[in-house]
Write a structure and sequence with these properties.
The chain is mostly helical and 170 residues long. Helices cover 76% and strands 0% of the residues. Belongs to the Ycf3 family.
Length: 170
């Protein structure tokens, strides 16, 4: 039985049933349907913390999926896994790939900013003020873009930008 069919959560079960119906009736190619199945399996594995399995499914989905918009979300989810594993350089690579295909993905912009902010804090703790400032400025840049796309989100980032005086002119 596929992982996505094992979910005990009512909402997950409902989504799975609806996704199966949509998948059957939409006029899509066999490859696109397979890509979606791998993507869905990847999301289920990721939700259960099975990151290696999720990555396998996402990479398989990428090998089949041709639609740039759909590929952007696969790249984004791969970035989430690398972020969770503390592999920030790889995570940044996948978030940027997602943005190349879908520049209006505020959550990818936010996650890039969070990584840069984290690196800024780390540099600050090591008294490396130059790197710290560079990382904080990069974080602000990406948060401003995310906030532009989703003005009602990222309230903490908006406050941080104001408090640290990293507005538009910086």
């Amino acid at each position: 039985m596929a992982r996505s069919q094992k979910n005990d959560n009512f909402i997950d079960k409902t989504f799975t049933v609806l996704a199966d119906i949509v998948l059957k009736i939409l006029p899509t190619s066999k490859e696109e349907k397979q890509a979606f199945c791998y993507y869905r399996e990847g999301m289920s594995a990721q939700a259960e913390g099975e990151y290696a399995e999720a990555l396998e499914n996402y990479y398989e989905a990428l090998s089949l999926e041709e639609d740039p918009y759909d590929r952007s979300y696969i790249f984004y989810n791969i970035g989430l896994i690398y972020t969770s594993n503390g592999e920030h350089i790889k995570a940044l690579e996948y978030y940027h790939k997602a943005l190349e295909l879908n520049p209006k993905l505020p959550q990818a912009l936010n996650n890039i900013a969070v990584i840069y902010h984290y690196q800024g804090v780390q540099a600050c703790e090591k008294n490396n003020n130059k790197i710290s400032e560079d990382m904080f400025n990069k974080a602000a840049k990406y948060w401003r873009q995310a906030i532009y796309l989703a003005p009602n989100n990222y309230i903490e980032a908006q406050n941080w930008i104001k408090i640290t005086n990293r507005g538009v002119n910086n």
